[in-house]
Amino acid sequence: MTTEEGRLHGRQTLHRLTEETPSAHPARVIFCKLSEDCWAETYIMDEGENTARFIIRIQREMDDDFVKGTIAHEYAHCLSWYWEDADHGPAFGLAFSKVWSLLFDEGV
Length: 108
Ligand SMILES: [Zn+2]
What we know:
Layout: H1 4-20, E1 27-32, E2 40-45, E3 53-59, H2 67-80, H3 90-105
Parallel strand pairs: 1-3
Antiparallel strand pairs: 2-3
Bound molecules: zinc ion.
């Protein structure tokens, strides 16, 4: 189960990523109850409107230790959203690499 501190840190992580490498739309993270086999998902709300934004939903049952890596993965989906149709194709891989080095190589 994520703690309040874990959720705060997750939101800070996402905020930092959106500042350092902006996606096509603003991104927001929500911690909520998802089905048992789903740890996280990302979708666009209001696609095609000025208010379009990425919504990253994270399973609230997740331990805090996994939140940062999960946000890295989901934000890579935001960055590569319009680049390819495949979920985890080469564009996703490039985006994930960039996000990973921002978060983990530079000790953010
Ligand atoms: Zn994925």
